[in-house]
Every structure is written in structure tokens, then in C-alpha cells.
Design goal:
With 143 residues, the chain is α+β, with helices and mostly antiparallel strands. It is built from 3 helices and 8 strands, in the order ααββββββββα. A hairpin with a 4-residue loop joins β3 and β4.
């Protein structure tokens, strides 16, 4: 009987922790939730795309800006692990058009790991500001 109680005492916290981890992993991403709440409409491509700068939001979302002072939210198919830790990215396109589902971004130090672009959302200045504020909230210790 003691062995059974000991086994329960050891296994129960692991089981509970495992369930808690799974539940938090299933929470909607704050940026995916923002896209839904703001009813952002994706575009399949951006013609005459001339990359100018970028801001990482998380491992699956970033904002890119163009030389024409337009900004786009890029949603990636999966996590791009070094995105939060690099100061440079490169965008792989087929010419001067950025296309969802065909093009990708990569970290120049790791060009073999391409992060495919799932969706492209045009943004206005206010939306860029809001998305950057979401990142700051996420990074603050009280969040």
C-alpha cells in the first residue's frame, strides 16, 4: 500500500503539470487573436515589394516594412526559433513580389532554416503601434 501511495505522490504532480502545460499551449496566440479581433484581411502577395526593415513579435509573427512606408504583418507556418534573438533577417522571394505560401524568411547565420510565410496582412500605422505594444506587454514582468 505504501508503494502505491508513493507512486501516486510522484506521478500526480507530473500528470497535473503535463495537463497545465498542454492547456496553456492551446491558448490562442495573442497575435493570432489580434488578427481575428481586428478582422485583418490577408493578401496573397505584395507586388513591387522592396524590403526596408522589420520587427520580431514572437517566433511566428513579425512586421516588415517597405521602402514605400507600408507595413505588413507576416504570420509564419511554424516557429522560427532564432527570430527573437537576431538583429538581421533575409527574405527569400521570387523576384519583386512577396507571396504567402511560397516565400520565406531566414536568419543569415542559418540560411538552411527557412521559415515559410503563411499569411501576409497589410497594416496601417495604428495597427503597427498596437502590435508593438502587445509585444511590450508580453515582455513585461507583470504580464
Amino acid at each position: 500500500m505504501k508503494n502505491f501511495r508513493l507512486m501516486i505522490a510522484v506521478v500526480a504532480p507530473i500528470f497535473i503539470f503535463g495537463c497545465a502545460t498542454t492547456a496553456s499551449d492551446n491558448k490562442p496566440n495573442r497575435y493570432a487573436q489580434y488578427i481575428q479581433e481586428q478582422k485583418l484581411e490577408p493578401v496573397s502577395s505584395v507586388t513591387a515589394f522592396r524590403y526596408h526593415g522589420w520587427n520580431s513579435l514572437d517566433k511566428e509573427h513579425l512586421i516588415v516594412s517597405t521602402t514605400f512606408k507600408k507595413s505588413y504583418l507576416l504570420a509564419l507556418y511554424g516557429p522560427c526559433n532564432d527570430l527573437n534573438f537576431t538583429n538581421r533577417i533575409a527574405i527569400h522571394t521570387q523576384g519583386m513580389t512577396l507571396q504567402a505560401k511560397f516565400d520565406s524568411i531566414y536568419i543569415p547565420n542559418s540560411p538552411e532554416y527557412k521559415c515559410s510565410i503563411k499569411s501576409i496582412y497589410p497594416l496601417n500605422e495604428e495597427q503597427v503601434k498596437q502590435l508593438r505594444e502587445l509585444r511590450v506587454e508580453k515582455e513585461s514582468p507583470s504580464a
